[in-house]
Amino acid sequence: MRILLVEPNARKAQETTRHMERAGFTVDHVDTGHDAVGMLKSYNYDLAVMDICLPDMDGYEVIRTSRVARLPTPVLILSDENAPTAKVKAFSTGADDYVTRPYESMELTARMQAIVRRSKGYSEPTLRAGPLELCLDSREVRVRGSSVHLTGKEYVILELLLLRKGMVLTKDAFLNHLYGGMDEPEMKIIDVFICKLRKKLQLAGAGQLISTVWGQGYVLRDENSSFTMPASESAIHVRTG
């Protein structure tokens, strides 16, 4: 999962980023409200974790601005402010959760995962497609009950495909999710990752879930299910396996 951390304090940002990365999140960090709005408009984040006290505009205003712009990214407030009025204001503005410092890293991780699951329409921590299961909490992948070992990049790609099951994802979307626009390799690396991921899933008995949409990207779907893509696209050729 890709997270936008909005935190002006360098020490706190490093500490929070360390906790998130240990939990398996990919983290981009900005320290101002205007930068946060710009990043939310430019990239498709699974969650924004935001302090209220920012140097240019407060977190409430960032949430209001993003909601007016119809940006769907859910927001978790992470703040030193524990007054009930602050929490009420955050929720009324459009925040999805509120965590106060000091926090327990396991609780923060659990709350983040719960928000992302709800935002994607999942009530349980396990994502499924055919015989494939992926647990967001433990980052474990199973096919018919047997574990499948994936590298970090392979897991992130599979997680993204499952969270957006039935949607065609472009190679640019994968690159942005994996590298956040920083030190991005050539686009063909996505083909390499997908190829290796397919081979591992095929050996485990789930090799037909990821389809290639020629000229567009890749889509994960349950067997015999359909997929969605922009209405303007036509004459699309799909290859499975």
UniProtKB/TrEMBL annotation:
Residues 2-116 form the Response regulatory domain. Residues 124-222 form the OmpR/PhoB-type domain. Residues 124-222 bind DNA. It comes from the Bacteria. GO terms for biological process: regulation of DNA-templated transcription. Keywords: DNA-binding, Phosphoprotein, Transcription, Transcription regulation, Two-component regulatory system. One of its GO terms (molecular function) is phosphorelay response regulator activity. One of its GO terms (cellular component) is cytosol. PROSITE patterns: OMPR_PHOB, RESPONSE_REGULATORY. This is DNA-binding response regulator. It comes from Komagataeibacter melaceti.
